[in-house]
């Protein structure tokens, strides 16, 4: 084993050692320890390792820069093997816990391991544990999403404001700070808010919890909503309408706190920025000005 060979590690990882080098290394006391590390890292979903690129870079560094001191091979291998394991663990954990995010104005369709479907609305996030999915169909949601659930074991959506439990159904969940809304489009869902108030919804039933106040109402499942290009509201706190406008169009609406008590019933198109503002603010009798991506509500 040539301890002063700067390319030894890269060639070993790439399987390019000569038979003599391979035999000498396997007979060294370091081999068993390093091989165990590599065996563990090979079970993880790490990023692709380009050994040829690494060899090229090592050779370039060796040629272009004068050696200040001799490199210690066991230390090089130990550090590199540790990096491989850490990278492997990182990518393994992310593969087991996929995260889906949307930005302003975006929608994202996700097919879950059991064939259930989720459509994320703008500025939302969804994650779940892929490894334990067969035993526990649990997801974590921030923002808003529409679920079409395949029948099977209990299906749970956890949010900071409450959770939803179902077997097989279609429903919409909208959750953010001090706001939790669920609308059932088919089947039956069990809704538990963060205050442990439990509600069962069937097709056409909806409930929301806003600042400790629970409300229920009925709706037409055939009506248009955000998944079909329209954001619709029924007696919604005006702050939720403002948030929906900001999420859909990546804008900032100022002075909206002056209308905390107002409620809004109606819809706006997710495709037309100026028309959406006009629809909402005209209906509310509110004057406003637009300056690029800033909307200023006048007192």
Descriptive notes:
The protein has helices at residues 8-13, 19-26, 29-42, 51-64, 73-96, 238-249, 273-284, and strands spanning 99-101, 108-111, 117-120, 125-128, 137-148, 155-159, 162-166, 170-176, 179-186, 188-193, 198-202, 205-210, 213-218, 230-237, 252-254, 263-269, 288-291, 294-297. By secondary structure, it is of the alpha+beta class. It has 3 domains: 8-96, no CATH class; 98-222, Sandwich (Jelly Rolls), CATH 2.60.120; 224-299, Phage tail protein beta-alpha-beta fold (3-Layer(bab) Sandwich), CATH 3.55.50. Strands 1, 2, 3, 4, 5, 6, 7, 8, 9, 10, 11, 12 and 13 form a 13-stranded mixed beta sheet that branches. Helix 3 (29-42) runs parallel beside helix 5. The longest helix has 24 residues, at 73-96.
Silhouette: elongated
Total number of domains: 3
Q: What's the story with the biggest beta sheet?
A: 13 strands, mixed
CATH fold-type name of the largest domain: Jelly Rolls
In whole angstroms, the N-to-C terminal distance is: 80 Å
Topology, element by element:
Elements lengths: L7 H6 L5 H8 L2 H14 L8 H14 L8 H24 L2 E3 L6 E4 L5 E4 L4 E4 L8 E12 L6 E5 L2 E5 L3 E7 L2 E8 L1 E6 L4 E5 L2 E6 L2 E6 L11 E8 H12 L2 E3 L8 E7 L3 H12 L3 E4 L2 E4 L2
Parallel strand pairs: 5-6, 15-18
Antiparallel strand pairs: 1-4, 2-3, 3-5, 4-5, 5-8, 6-7, 7-10, 8-9, 9-12, 10-11, 12-13, 14-16, 17-18
Helix pairs in contact: 3-5
Features of this protein?
Phage tail protein beta-alpha-beta fold; 7 helices; Jelly Rolls; 299 residues; 3 domains; alpha+beta; 13-stranded mixed β-sheet; three-stranded mixed β-sheet
């Amino acid at each position: 084993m040539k301890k002063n060979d700067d390319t030894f590690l890269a060639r070993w990882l790439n399987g390019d050692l000569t038979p003599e080098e391979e035999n000498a290394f396997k007979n060294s006391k370091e081999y068993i320890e390093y091989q165990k590390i590599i065996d563990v890292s090979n079970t993880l979903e790490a990023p692709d390792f380009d050994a040829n690129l690494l060899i090229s870079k090592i050779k370039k560094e060796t040629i272009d820069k004068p050696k200040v001191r001799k490199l210690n091979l066991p230390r090089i291998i130990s550090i590199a093997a540790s990096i491989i394991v850490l990278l492997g663990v990182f990518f393994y954990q992310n593969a087991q816990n996929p995260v889906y995010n949307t930005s302003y104005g975006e929608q994202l369709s996700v097919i879950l391991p059991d064939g259930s479907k989720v459509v994320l609305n703008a500025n939302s996030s969804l994650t779940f544990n892929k490894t334990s999915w067969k035993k526990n169909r649990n997801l974590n949601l921030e923002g808003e999403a529409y679920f079409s659930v395949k029948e099977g074991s209990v299906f749970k959506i956890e949010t900071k404001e409450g959770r939803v439990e179902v077997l097989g159904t279609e429903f919409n969940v909208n959750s953010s700070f001090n706001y939790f809304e669920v609308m059932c489009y088919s089947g039956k869902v069990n809704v538990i808010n963060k205050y442990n108030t439990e509600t069962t919804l069937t097709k056409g039933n909806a409930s929301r919890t806003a600042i400790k106040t629970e409300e229920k109402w009925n709706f037409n499942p055939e009506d248009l909503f955000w998944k079909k290009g329209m954001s619709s509201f029924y007696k919604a706190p005006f702050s939720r309408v403002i948030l929906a406008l900001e999420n859909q169009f990546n804008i900032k609406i100022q002075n909206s706190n002056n209308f905390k008590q107002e409620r809004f019933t109606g819809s706006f198109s997710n495709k037309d920025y100026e028309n959406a503002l006009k629809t909402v603010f005209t209906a509310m009798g509110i004057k406003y000005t637009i300056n690029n991506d800033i909307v200023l509500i006048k007192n």
